[in-house]
Amino acid sequence: MIWNRRRFLAAGAAGLGGVSALAAIGESGETNSKVPPAAHTPDPGSWTDNGITLAWLGHSTVLINFYGVRILTDPVLFPRIGIDAWLMSIGPLRLTSCALPPSQLPDIDLVLVSHAHFDHLDTPSLASIPGRPAAVMAASTSDLLPRKRRYKSIQELYWKQRVRIDTPRGDVEVRAIEVKHWGARLGRDTYRGYNGYVIKREGRSLLFGGDTAHTRLFFRDHHAYGPYDAAIMPIGAYEPWIYNHCTPEQSVAMADDAGARLFVPIHHKAFRLSHEPFDEPIERLERALDAEEGRLVIRDVGETARIV
After folding, report:
1. Prior bond to 227 cis, omega within 30?
2. Largest CA distance in the chain
């Protein structure tokens, strides 16, 4: 426990997306009863396999039914993130509960992990996912997968690499894209990669931005892989971490650059990782998209949207 505490303190802002490690320390073991519930509860059992439906479960975790293929992005499902220490974690407590616990998820076919930060690569969550999914991860991060959990396959991707994943419900193409962030988990492991992803199936495309600051890469490089039916983009943790996280307005600009029709905001309302007020990211986003009726399809944790 002492070793884990020291390593966590040494990580500082690196592994938790900018949060002060000293402020974040706390003992886990909580149940969701200590965290306010999500505003909505998705019902994935009612979703059709003939289209794309998704629900924002909280932070960067999105459950997607992509023409029958069940995909989960950056799974963070429990009340606390941080160092996994025996039966508990040491790190920030959620501000809003995950919209679905592992027991209410469908069997997952594919897990996408953007990078190794604790609020994106959560080992207890990755150990609890139902089914036997394939995992697609950033370069040099698969060593962090929990050993007790068997994945059907594990693929590490560098930027611009793509892979076709075969699942019991059909295949899906995943391409890693470059974003403006960093991937070290504990400060010194700077060799680890960090990705966004393009997901394609049945002639349709989704863009998952992972974590990113503002960059012209979405126009220069990622536009060529579109157009996209929706962009799943981060909008929070920008104050004062503007060099690593984008503002809501910058996030919209990058989705525009990429050629995305609909906008799905993530990376806000879940953890205290920065200084902007709790509701500020979504309020700024609503103003930025006020003239584009119907483009913002999800506003609150647990909401579901039919994309096509």
Report:
1. yes
2. 53
Q: For position 14, what pLDDT does the model report?
A: 42
Alpha carbon separation from 62 to 54, 234, 253 (Å, rounded) = 7, 12, 21
Q: Which residue's entry shows tokens 């289209």? A: 51
Q: From the centroid of its chain, how far is CA 85?
A: 23
Say whether pLDDT at 21 is over 50: no
* Half-sphere exposure in the Cβ direction for 272 (13 Å, CA): 13
- When pLDDT is averaged across residues 270-287 and rounded to a whole number, the result is 97
The C-alpha atoms of residue 234 and residue 250 are separated, in whole angstroms, by 10
Residue from 9, 192, 24 nearest 117 by CA: 192
Residue 274 φ then ψ, to 5°: -160, -170
* 135 bridge partner residues: 111, 154
Check: CB of residue 70 under 8 Å from CB of residue 64: yes
Helix axes 248-258, 280-288, angle to 10 degrees: 40
Nearest partner of 16 among 55, 63, 73, 59, judged by Cα = 59
pTM, two decimal places: 0.90
pLDDT above 80 (res 288): yes
User: Does pLDDT of 29 surpass 90?
Assistant: no
